[in-house]
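Journal club prep — side note

Before the paper discussion, L.F. wants everyone to see what a predicted structure for a comparable chain looks like in token form. Sequence:
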Amino acid sequence: MLGWSSCWATATPSLRTVIDRLAHLRTDSDWVNQAWRAVDSKALVVASERAAVLREASATARLAWQPTSEVPPGERYLLGRDDRGGTRFAVRVDEISTDIPSASLRSLAAQLAEPDLSLALHAVGLANWHATHTHCPRCGSPTAVAAAGAERRCPRDGSAHFPRTDPAVIVLVVDPAGRALLGHHRDWPAGRFSTLAGFVEPGESAEDALIREVAEESGLLISDISYVASQAWPFPASLMLGFHARASGSTPVPDGVELADVRWFDHDEFERSVIAGDVVPPSGISIAHSLVKQWFGTSLPPSPPGVTWR
């Protein structure tokens, strides 16, 4: 079956597919080697959560796709083929040379256009997993890249290991008055507020996880759960599942473990607080931003100069 990848999700998911991941060819080592040597193939150098970029005087970032013959040695992973033609690879190195301009995916995500965004998410997600799964969890032997980067295999016991994706749920909760529930994590700088979120635990559905997380963090019981969109979040390996839900207008109580503060915001209060710099909304690269923007009804109000999420 062909593997396809779509764009970075927002509150309105894209229906188009832009990357053919070539899943049916990953195990054909002859084809992969030929594709690597093809003149129209390109590779992206990645390390940790950083990717090579072009140094340009522009507000729009561009990935530095290089001919495969010119990239430094490192583990290579097949990403696929985009609508520009030619096969795309990622090459993971321990550290990107200071001679090569690079940037973190967090800083790039809001600037990259498709299909580079999908390819960067794929590359960084694979690189994160490979870097932390170098040994077999069964016998402890070093593993090797297989299936063009889609697997690692243990040469000792023959076991195959696959990149993990951790499902996480994130929700914009509103009350009967239309107020939005936002929380402040205890480890965040003062003023940061976002939607409530958490990881799905074994045996839970996404809806079960939402009900549990909101109850644990705010003491509120939610209902009328509706799915909105998903977002790949390779920091290091999550899939964010975005939802809307409703709750009564009861006073929320922060759990004191994860959330130091949780409160209802109406539109006017939210706008005043953001403009004053008292509240910093979620950054534009996250699905949380899209959920809050959808509730607010238009672009979020600007924060004062120098006030950012990071």
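L.F.'s comment for the group: The longest strand covers residues 222-233. Keep this in mind when we get to the figures.
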